Prior knowledge:
Layout: H1 2-21, E1 31-43, E2 60-69, E3 85-94, H2 98-101, E4 102-114, E5 122-136, E6 155-167, E7 172-184, E8 195-209, H3 212-215, E9 242-254, E10 266-278, E11 283-294, E12 306-318, E13 321-330, E14 340-349, E15 354-362, E16 368-381
Amino acid sequence: MKYILVILLLFLFHFEVMSQEDKENTLKNRFKFFEVKSHGGAFLKSDDPLGNSVILENGYGGVTIKLGWQPTNSKSWSSSYSYPSYGIGLYTGFLSDAEVFGNPNALYGFINFPISHPEKKNVFSVETSLGLTYNLNPFDSETNPINNAIGARAAVYFNIDFGFAYKFTRELDILYGFDFTHFSNGSTYQPNKGLNLYGLNLGLRYHYNAAQFDVDKDPYTDNLLPARFKRPLRAERNKTRESAISIYTAGGFSQRREDAGTETLYGTFSSVLDYEYQFNEMHAINAGVDLFFDNRLRSLDSSERVIAGIHAGYDFNFWRFAIKFQLGTYLTDNRGKGAYFMRPALRYQISKIVFAQVGLKTLAGGAADYIEYGIGIKAFKW
């Protein structure tokens, strides 16, 4: 989990870098917002991971608090994406049974992409959040044997929200929507069925202009700056097409089921050779070959722990980030991992050539196999 924390801190640092790069009108307008939202719903159970227990029937509740930045620079990357906002947030949850699961808290970064036309009063948007969950109560064969969903005190926090913001007043939005939340440690520790939550949310968002105090500090003044950014129409996207060959290597640690409740970990390794084709600054596709090494396969010789595969995927790009999804299958014996695998991942382009990436390599059906922490290069571009 310490690797996830380091990556999260880097992401939060780069959110601030993104706001610093947005220099247009910073002397007159610095748009920010503060948001509080309540969450409630039920657990998504695909295979009833807690057996016949009824503790999941009680549902969950939660509260999120966010601080956000609104870019305004018409010459920056954000203008091509309808000026998405981004920031940091805190989450605290109230699950069915705190003695079994604990009361999870999370620190995360988020980005919100508006979909509706700028003139609409009720704006639909898609928001994704990624961070670190802590204060979980993990599985223990003696003190907490019923919890075979979470095997560590810390886990990845992921949330996707399909929501609306109704512009109620000059400063205030009424928020409502539907969201999905996932807690998992990527099978670093067993058991790791994970917890999947879905439900409704309701909240308020307060917009303010941080430059107001530089202009007039009088609380009774009529000399007011705009409190919120009026989005212009989306700029035309850069349609420059590009092909590239990338090489990516990653390592990680994971646990066997029989090691649940212990600190025993085994090394994993992934190597990927990809052809990537980018249609424009937002969309790209890729295909390539994979080489996996799984040291958890202790009953096999070292050479038999190597598995080869192929994959194809799609990338959604924004700023220096890419949200990746790949679907693949094995060319060799899958060693009990299933006929196919998936790889959702987040990539950060450090330079024009070098990138860092964290992803989840899955088993068939979407269950976590292990987390990949890696670095790569775009060796050739044309």
